[in-house]
Design a protein that fits this description.
The protein is mainly alpha-helical. The chain has one domain: ADP-ribosylation/Crystallin J1 (ADP-ribosylglycohydrolase fold, Orthogonal Bundle), CATH 1.10.4080. It is globular, with a radius of gyration of 17 Å. The two termini are 22 Å apart.
C-alpha cells in the first residue's frame, strides 16, 4: 500500500475525530435540556468547532503523512506550537502545565514522568488523539502499538494512559481492516481482539468486563459499570468508548449518538468513537451535514504544509 493511501486513511480517521469532538462539545449545558436534545436527536446550536482532542490528533497525523513515523521530539514540539496558537481549545490543567514546561525548554520525558507525584498521567488525553495511527498502519498491529506508545509517552507516561492509547489505535486498525477486507466481526470479538494486544492493566480488565454488558442495558447502568469519562482517566473513558464502537462499527451516526448519550467527557468519548467507527462505516452512513459543518482541520492554523 502506498504512503499516500495510508495518509488518506489517517485523514479519514482524523475526520471522524473532528466530527465526534465538535459534536460532543455541542452537548455541554443544562442537563435536562441536553437530555431532551439527545432524546429528540437534535443538535444544540453550535459552531461545530473542535477542541484540543482534534488539535493534538492533527499533530500526530502530520507526523504520519510527513515522516511515515512518530518522531517524539518533533511531536512534542508540535504539541507545544499548536497549543500556543490557541490556548482556548479545552486543554486540561495538567496538559497545559506539561506543554508550557516543554515549551520553556524542559525535557518532555522528565516532565511527563514527573506529574502526579511521579506516577505519570493516566488521563484520557493520549487516547483521544491516537486513532490515525491505527488507520495508517492498519495491517501491522506491532507497528501500531509501537507508535501509539511513542505518541502517548510525551504526555502520559503512566501505563494506564499508554494502555488507553494502544487500545484506541488498535481499535482503529481493526475497524479499517473490517472495511478494506470486508470482514464480519461481532462486538465481543472486536473487544477481545483489542484486549489481546494490551498490557495487563485496570483498563484491559475493564475492557474485558465490557463484553458482559448488553447493548440493551439502560445507559445509566452502562455508566455505572464502564464509566463515562467524568474522572478524565483512561479506565473511566476507553472501555465505554471501545464498547460503544464495537456495537456500532458499521453505523457512524448511531455510534456518535450513543457515545454522547452517556454524557460525562462527551467531546473526548465522541472523538474516540468517531475516529474508530468512521473507518468501518460506509460513506453513505456518515451524515453529510456533519461533514460539511465541522471546522475544517485541513485549512486550520494547526496543520503543517508538507515540504
Amino acid at each position: 500500500m502506498t504512503i499516500n493511501h495510508r495518509a488518506k486513511l489517517a485523514n479519514k480517521s482524523l475526520k471522524g475525530i473532528s466530527i465526534g469532538d465538535a459534536f460532543g462539545e455541542s452537548f455541554f449545558g443544562e442537563t435536562d435540556k441536553i437530555l431532551n436534545h439527545i432524546r429528540e436527536r437534535s443538535i444544540p446550536k453550535t459552531s461545530w468547532e473542535f477542541t484540543d482532542d482534534t488539535v493534538m490528533a492533527i499533530a500526530i497525523y502530520d507526523q504520519l503523512r510527513i515522516n511515515n513515523d512518530i518522531n517524539q521530539n518533533e511531536l512534542a514540539n508540535d504539541f507545544v506550537i499548536n497549543h500556543e496558537k490557541d490556548v482556548n481549545r479545552g486543554y486540561g490543567a495538567t496538559a497545559r502545565r506539561v506543554l508550557r514546561e516543554i515549551g520553556e525548554g524542559g525535557n518532555w520525558k522528565t516532565i511527563s514522568q514527573s506529574v502526579f507525584e511521579g506516577m505519570g498521567s493516566m488521563g484520557n488525553g493520549a487516547s483521544m488523539r491516537v486513532s490515525p495511527i491505527g488507520a495508517y498502519y492498519f495491517d501491522d498491529l506491532k507497528r501500531v502499538k509501537e507508535l501509539a506508545i511513542k505518541s502517548a509517552e510525551i504526555t502520559h507516561s503512566n501505563i494506564e494512559g499508554i494502555t488507553g492509547a494502544i487500545a484506541v489505535a488498535v481499535g482503529a486498525a481493526i475497524a479499517t481492516q473490517i472495511k478494506l477486507e470486508n470482514l464480519k466481526i461481532s462486538p465481543n470479538e472486536f473487544i477481545n481482539k483489542i484486549a489481546e494486544e494490551l498490557p495487563d492493566t485496570d483498563t484491559k480488565s475493564k475492557l474485558r468486563k465490557s463484553t458482559s454488558v448488553p447493548y440493551s442495558y439502560n445507559i445509566e447502568t452502562v455508566k455505572s459499570i464502564l464509566g463515562n469519562g467524568s474522572n478524565i482517566i483512561v479506565q473511566d473513558t476507553v472501555p465505554f468508548s471501545i464498547w460503544c464502537s464495537a456495537h456500532n462499527l458499521t453505523n457512524f451516526e448511531e455510534s456518535i449518538w450513543k457515545a454522547v448519550s452517556i454524557l460525562g467527557d462527551r467531546d473526548t468519548i465522541c472523538a474516540i468513537v468517531g475516529g474508530i467507527t468512521i473507518m468501518s462505516t460506509d460513506e453513505n452512513r456518515i451524515p453529510k451535514d456533519w461533514i460539511d459543518s465541522v471546522e475544517n482541520f485541513e485549512t486550520s492554523q494547526f496543520i503543517k504544509n508538507k515540504t
